[in-house]
Amino acid sequence: MNDKYRKRGVLLVGHGAIPTDYPRELVTKLKTLEARRRASGTEPTPEETDLDRRIRRWPRTPHTDPYQAGFEALAAHLSTRLHGERFAMAYNEFCAPTVEEALQEMIEAGITTITVVPSMLTPGGSHSEIEIPESLNRLRARFPHVEIRYAWPFDLPAVATMLASQLQRFDS
Fold first, then answer.
1. What is the CATH number of the domain that holds 129?
2. pTM above 0.90?
């Protein structure tokens, strides 16, 4: 497809957090099932899928999920810098929408080039280096006509510059 006809979008992916009012025993059960699945290399059980869906759909407020509130604030700042490109947010775990849900929605809206950027900045994490790429690979196979780019890894000198700038704000 000619590049001038491609519709572009950006998907910002955050980690996600457990709401403070979510039942702890359900978190423990979900994490136990996830660990068993990873150890055995099998697909998620219906119980794990249901528990994952329940925690992601749990009602949230800035008080019960300050991470989500902060991530949404970051997303609002980023979206104003994208020159009109379609923008969406997703979470790797605990919150909705999932990476796959958000990407599928963008694709259904006609977006043909999607750049996915995680909010996790440093290398070595399983979310940014394993889980998100696995989700993107599944989607590339389902939607071969869509270009899905992964803006990873971050340029560490640029991240260091940002952190140094932050330190200067507090060095007075």
1. 3.40.50.1400
2. yes
